[in-house]
Amino acid sequence: MSEEKYISLAEIKDILTAESEKRAENGIEFNAVQKSALMHAQTLVVLDADQTEELVSEVIQLDFFQSKSVPEYVAYRVADCLPKYPEEVRAIFSKERIPLENEDINSIIDIVAKYL
Q1: Looking at the predicted structure, is the pLDDT value of residue 41 above 80?
Q2: What is the reported pTM?
Q3: How far apart are alpha carbons 31 and 23 in whole angstroms?
Q4: Residue 84 gets which letter from DSSP?
């Protein structure tokens, strides 16, 4: 039985970069899909993997996050999207149908702001 582990886009970027370098040493190139995935990650990633993990940890520790049983992957989505405005936070949580108070939204924005 395999264990699921959520990873951030920053971690994906690191994995793809390492694999690309490893293959380049052997004269092997990524295919078009792999190149596209790496370019996507390089373009969108703002924080490094360690900073992203710290941000995810802070978000998960928020009281409302635990009391409303918010899935862990939502914290990774926050770390990947780095919302700056309430509407962006609401958009992340809307799919989960989790009602947020203004205080909850502001807590997320404050955490994200520390890393930008």
Answers
A1: yes
A2: 0.88
A3: 11
A4: -
